[in-house]
Amino acid sequence: MKNKWIYLSPHFDDAVLSCGGLAWEQVQAGEKVEIWTICAGEPPNQEYSAFARSLHERWETGLNAAAQRREEDTLSCAIIGASARTFSIPDCIYRMRKDGSRPICDSEDELFQGPQVDDKELVCWLANEIGGAAGENTKIVSPLALGNHVDHWLTRTAAEQSGGKLWYYADYPYVLKDFAIADPSDNGEWKTVIFPVSEGGLEAWMKSIAAHRSQLSTFWDDVPSMEAAIREYYQSAGGIKLWMKG
Fold first, then answer.
1. Could you count the other beta carbons within 10 Å of the beta carbon of residue 5?
2. pLDDT at 108
3. How many Cβ atoms are within 10 Å of 67's Cβ, its own excluded?
4. Is 34 in a helix, a strand, or coil?
5. The CATH number, out of the four listed (3.90.1150.10, 3.40.50.11890, 3.40.50.10320, 3.40.50.720), of the domain defined by the range 4-245
6. Distance CA 138, CA 181 (A)
7. Measured by CB atoms within 10 angstroms of the end CB, which terminus of the chain is less buried, N or C?
8. How many C-beta atoms surround the C-beta of residue 138 within 10 A?
9. Would you list the domain boundaries of the chain?
């Protein structure tokens, strides 16, 4: 029986940034691939913070950022042949603290502050959703949460609380900076598997990233710069790595 792979993507672009080429190869091999975008919900209100408005301006999405990013995700998933599932949890720039005083993340620095106590209830709910998908032939792939992003930790924590056997991927591009201090390969409790990606897979990978057009300016000047970076990353790693405990 063929495997089903579920990639947990904190935001719309994270899974394809990190694993798009591998996901395409798995689809070509007849396996089923799903991308679950965790923080895909609409903002709880339209009173955006100054920080959120600055990101909307950079993304050129206006007030409809979540809706536009869902459209981008639909195209991106179609390019690699994956099914898309989105959750109603808002991005951390929109989620409010329990006391309602302000968003959980209200600056660039606050995006990278790790797990949040205010997300505890969301983690429990999400863990149940992920656990319900577990099965012998279903492989759930979580981000390692390299870079310490709040939403990446939300995703990883929920995945680990789901009780299932997990695979992990390195969060690109945060891996370029943080992998040296977070690489589990040297830990005897972890198993590392390197998956090759063909030229066709590389092309699909880059196209799937380019489909998230609002997000390109976050990391690159233009599409050619992104394509060069992805090729360099793949070649330096010798493939796409996944890890599993035990």
1. 23
2. 95
3. 12
4. strand
5. 3.40.50.10320
6. 30
7. N
8. 15
9. 4-245
